[in-house]
Design brief:
single chain; two-stranded antiparallel sheet
Length: 212
């Protein structure tokens, strides 16, 4: 048993050495903690699913909900797509750590890219009017009113486009989105909360880095 744990520890150290050279914002010791945490999450997942040693969409959603309080399935699916860089339907340990480096500690530039990809639902490198409508409809608290709520959301999409669509082509390119966010940083998560708040970050990092 001790021999196995020794082998496992050496494997984690070697993997951490490699990943820490490729990922920003985490040092080697933190990467080791992240690998151990990832392995724990995998054990909790039903490994019999064909996920090639990665977190599947369902488990990933549960983590976002339980650890970071996310509830919007459309946004959570967007976060999953953004983490799953090779698009194989599961998040590997390297993808998990790369994703968390931006999710927890990213620069504004990194977070702008991340949020844009989350909101680009079909992956065509634009946020279309239809995508804005779906995202806003999903994220706004639906209050029962006499007015048609869809009409109010359509109006909001038009207002948003006037503010953010700098090249006036009826959709948001990354350049449009970046320019708008740099002018008004509240627009970063304008189509739905897809980043954790500071309290969630501190709690998660404390659990991960201090309690291990």
């Amino acid at each position: 048993m001790s021999e196995m744990s020794s082998v496992n520890r050496k494997w984690i150290q070697a993997l951490a050495e490699t990943i820490s050279k490729q990922v920003k914002h985490f040092n080697k010791t933190e990467v080791e903690c992240l690998i151990r945490g990832f392995n724990d999450l995998l054990e909790e997942q039903n490994i019999s699913k064909n996920t090639a040693g990665g977190l599947d969409r369902g488990r990933f959603r549960s983590i976002l909900h339980d650890m970071f309080g996310m509830t919007d399935y459309m946004i959570m699916d967007g976060v999953f797509r953004t983490f799953d860089k090779d698009n194989d339907g599961s998040v590997s340990v390297k993808e998990w750590i790369e994703g968390l480096s931006v999710f927890l500690r990213g620069s504004l530039e990194e977070k702008i890219k991340y949020c844009f990809h989350v909101y680009d639902l079909n992956g065509d490198n634009y946020i279309s009017k239809e995508e804005m409508f779906q995202l806003l409809k999903n994220s706004l608290n639906r209050q029962p009113t006499e007015e048609d709520p869809d009409e109010g959301i359509k109006d909001l999409v038009e207002i948003t486009l006037k503010k953010m669509d700098h090249d006036h082509d009826g959709r948001l390119s990354f350049a449009d989105f970046e320019k708008a966010v740099r002018e008004e940083d509240l627009l970063l998560e304008g189509f739905g909360i897809c980043l954790p708040d500071n309290t969630s970050i501190e709690r998660y990092e404390r659990h991960l880095f201090e309690e291990q």
